[in-house]
Amino acid sequence: FGSSVIVRSMAFESCLASCVASSEIMSDGDAAPGDAVIREKFRKVHWVPLESNPEMLTKFACSIGMPEKWEFTDVFSLDLLDMVPPGAVAVTLLYDSSRDPMRKFKAQQREELQKAGQKISPNLKYMRQYVGNACGTIATIHSLANNMEAMGIDAASPLGKFIAEAGSKPPEEFGAALVDATELHSASEASAQGGQTAAPEATAEIHNHFIAFVEKDGDIYELDGSKVFPINHGPLQGSLLETAAKVIQSKFMSLDPDSMNWNMMALVPGEA
Q1: Where are the beta strands (DSSP E) in 89-138?
Q2: What pLDDT, in 10s, does the model give residues 239-260?
Q3: What are phi and psi of 235, to 5 degrees?
Q4: Has 15 been annotated as catalytic?
């Protein structure tokens, strides 16, 4: 992957308002039916953002149902993937989604996929983002929801109940359901207060954005709640972590080489 290094930043996730200000959120003409109505309904709903560090995401994930034998861990460099414990089932990426190279590429990618279409596994769990500042929360939910069985997440846990109630709904309804998920909201807010830097206000506009990568039925998917659809990046090439690193290098970092604001984490089994 060359000499690209993931710079560990204490930057916070982006709020929905900053995504709307950029081209990350689809225009009303491109969006799924009812999307604009849902976005307007929840326009003023914001949560305190999660800080981009593995301790915070692990704390939040455990509080909603993740078994304690699992944890998020830093990926410090694309050249040092062997330092990450084996068995990653999800990868998260924090990056500045407001920069011009990323905005232009995402607009082009959206147009191409809308014309050509793509294969989407019916087993994939994907939700839209309507809650401001919740992309770290949503990236965590995406990571867990697509690995419920493999991770042994209890159906009676807050996440288990949320997925049972809303996980089979269309992405728009699934995302809208998060607004009323009081247990998940409380857990996210409590975790956000325990970071290494002071948590900003819930309505703060921040341009860094969390997304997740997971495997489903042999393909790797980019799950970004600010998009109308998930992105299928094709079959795994090696492990999930190796494949995600290739996608991040080619579809993100190489497109914006001047940016130093990248943070990557992996969801892995912890040490016994």
Answers
A1: 90-96
A2: 999 999 999 999 999 999 988 8
A3: -65, 150
A4: no
